[in-house]
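In this supplementary section we document a worked example of the pipeline. Step one takes a protein sequence of length 301 as its only input; no multiple sequence alignment statistics are reported here. Step two produces a three-dimensional model, which step three serialises into structure tokens for compact storage. The input and output of this example are shown verbatim.
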Amino acid sequence: MSEAQIFSQKTKNFLRTAALFTGMLVLMLGLGYSLLGTTGLVYAGVFSLFTLLMSTRVSSQMIMRFQGGRPLRQTEAPQLTHLINRLAQRAGLDKAPQLYYVPNGTLNAFATGSRRDPAIAITHGLLSRMDLRELSGVLAHEISHIRNNDLQLKSLINLFSRLTRLFSIMGQILLFINLPMLLMGEAVVSWWAILLLLTAPLLTTLMMMAFSRTREYEADLEAARLTGDPNALADALEKLDFYNGGGIARFFSSNRGMKMPNVLRTHPETKDRVRRLRELAPRFIPRFDWSRFAPHFLHSV
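The serialised model returned by step three reads:
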């Protein structure tokens, strides 16, 4: 993948994100207007802004406690701590994310908080099955989410989802009100408005999934830049896919000729992400000399 192709990919990701946010904003304002006219439009905008401001005030420590995580001390994983400090510095973060250990057998890692209060959780399954090089790709990917403010964007999208569910309930109430009025030849609410209210949660869910896929591509690209080793993340993704394969994806793959529709995915297909990363590899020089790192990077957890 050439520099021109990388720039083109980043531009497409930005435009897709902007289009999705515009679509969600239009949907939200349309829902408010369909219920209360201009007043509802204003209320929807004000309520969305207020809820977003409140949602960003939830501390990463509180979220990690809810997930059953605890801080991973530097004495427990000194090399991992050193690694995340270097990655955070390269990403231009003022503060390195706090690492949290989650005693869960699944292979998973996720970021939470904000640039001012960043945190990354790593499960026991991930720590036990990946080497430090593969973890560098995973951590760089999560740090990229923090750097790109994806966590705040996801908070906004989750807010849209909650509000559309509320509007949907109101739409169902209006539907029951309209049924007897329809029999009398008078409908107090537009049927088009009710249809929008009822389908809004589905539309929002599809847009949420599309947003997530777009941001995953962007985080993969930024992670490759941070480590200089796209193959590290590619190897990690293949291992994640091998150990975590299941659920709805397995249902589709187990049926010959069936394939999960892309619109139902929160993440792009692993093979597509791996292919893109492998294509990037020749253009990068790894930033870490793994021969200087001990093979056993955990002291005790």
